[in-house]
């Protein structure tokens, strides 16, 4: 790190002293090859990153922590530069993961050029950060982004003056329209360390230091920043207030939830999954794979053939839709019979083993890949699209406000709504998102509630189909039960867990028109993470199922669970198998249960369907979720949660069963 | 031990409130805090401000320095001016161009004074 050539104490008039940091003049330092983007949250850093590097986010983990930084190479006027995007921070005190990572990034790259991206309207907070970064001595460029919003607000910043005061180039940009990027690239060459009088800190405490810095910031602002017009109540501002209003905000929330339900639950889990699973996999990919495997690994057997049809329809409600067309093909399926009288030598046995591994009942292609790509991917994509839209519009913090009081009952605060909503898409990703919560207690309680009662979109698909065969009353009863369980278990767990919930202090950004390019970029980023982190876990689960099946352990485990399933839950004994498989391969268990409930020969009474619904929802969603809990909180916690969740699910299911019989409902 | 209540952030001294509770209550009190609680009447905080009003921040009470810093980085420090936008379902304040949502606990610890008219 470049040491200041001299540090002098300069007396000011009011018995305060100031530090003067004198760094070597530019030109005596080699041109840097790394550019670090830093700045407050919500200033458009990632957009600027994309403008500079033309790359979508390439998420990676900072070694030793779980905060994401993104890096990419770019060419600035014939020079190869590595651009690093850091998480948004409001200050550099080590209170939060984001700040620690950013500080470390700065310390480990002493020669790097720091490009601080600021929201031009919020110059005060940006300058606070500037002064904190200034102490580290990096050559800097200050970017004032969102100039259009500043102009709309009637504000003006004297960039020349600001540049003079700070001693660094100040560039204006509108990242959304890619204005100013060229000027920024020019300015990077002129980057210099901040040269400024800083107040001597009276204590080591971050609060005191920041208070001191803020007085200096206010002085700078007084000389450079003017705001002339009062805020005009544009539509987005008014919308922003409605979304936080006690009544209008509630209506807003319900509309959003209904949209999520339709888009993800009906369009995604219904139409798209059907298209991928039946139209793509069952009708085309799996038969192709079977043919290829049979050609490469021959042993005497014949596969059955079955006609498979799928109908493409636009959904309106869970039971009504507009069919657009049906396609039927007769194709070969994974089930097969050995040729009569055939005797397989050891070579053929090996071939058969590999064949089954690939395209058998639990085969990699027939099950693992079809599960991952045909069932989960469409649902998760639909969800991420909608979620990214909500995120880009700035609605999510307002949602947190609406539910904060409710969440306080559970010992959490409104911020936990983010992972909970994400859990409706994928519980595994939501468990990872609990990192945004401040205290360990909140993270663990939220993880527990996600695994217990928030059905992920794939689970929702099954549940919706089952609900369709019951009355609407049953659907409400189910929802009511889940909400009650969440509140009860949440508040009890929160009380038992030591510690406090974090403070609810949440910045509310202005509502903006969501930009399609942003939504697309965020969706791709999340999908990319999903494909790389979760899909492999599904493959592991399928392999486990495959092995269990081969050693004939599956039937044994299912048989062991039968008394519980038949006696306590009152379900037919086949369901025991379905529950077990459902954990490892949810779609297979789901098909089993669905067939029993709603297929051509329904095996389940209405009460039994309801019991199955409740039990499935309360089960830990899938093995990927279990492993993610292990990754985030340690395997001990994961096992402890499983040890609570499974018995609890069976307990409640049985309670519902016996209560239903006793009260003679359904 | 002195009877005065003193704000740890800016050393503003509050007038002494009436002694509450019997010795039994104090004996059975859960934990002693290093910071005396704020007197309940007569103090203007974000919690007691009306929606739409402006006020100047006098000090940030409470015994959590990390919370004080959390507020400070948004510009919420003694001397800054804020406006209360709404009280339900959460308190929402506006400081400069930043809008912050707070819950009741935090709101009750931000001590204010009316701006000079």
CATH-defined superfamily of the domain at 6-227 in chain A: P-loop containing nucleotide triphosphate hydrolases
Mean pLDDT of chain B: 74
- Rg of chain B over CA atoms, rounded to whole Å, is 15 Å
Described by the principal axes of the CA atoms, the overall outline of chain A is globular
Element-by-element helix/strand order of chain B:
EEHEHEEEHE
Kindly summarize this structure in a few lines.
The complex is a heterodimer of chains A (666) and B (117). Chain A is α/β, with parallel strands linked by helices.
Q: How does this structure look, described?
A:
The complex is a heterodimer of chains A (666) and B (117). With 666 residues, chain A is of the alpha/beta class. In chain A, 57% of the residues lie in helices and 15% in strands. In chain A, the strands form 4 sheets. In chain A, strands 4-5-6-3-7-8-10 form a 7-stranded mixed beta sheet, sandwiched between helices. In chain A, α11 runs antiparallel to α18 and α14 packs parallel to α24. The relative contact order of chain A is 0.07. With 117 residues, chain B is of the alpha+beta class. Chain B has a domain of 68 residues: Roll (SH3 type barrels), CATH 2.30.30.90. Helices cover 15% and strands 26% of the residues of chain B. A 5-stranded antiparallel beta sheet of chain B has the order 6-5-4-3-7. In chain B, β4 and β5 form a beta hairpin. About 4% of the residues of chain B have low confidence. Chains A and B meet through α3, α7, α12 and β15 of A and α2 and β6 of B.
Q: Can you tag this structure with a few keywords?
A:
heterodimer; A: 666 residues; alpha/beta; Rossmann fold; seven-stranded mixed β-sheet; three-stranded antiparallel β-sheet; 25 helices; 15 strands; 57% helix; disordered N terminus; B: 117 residues; SH3 type barrels; two-stranded antiparallel sheet; 3 helices; 15% helix; 26% strand; globular
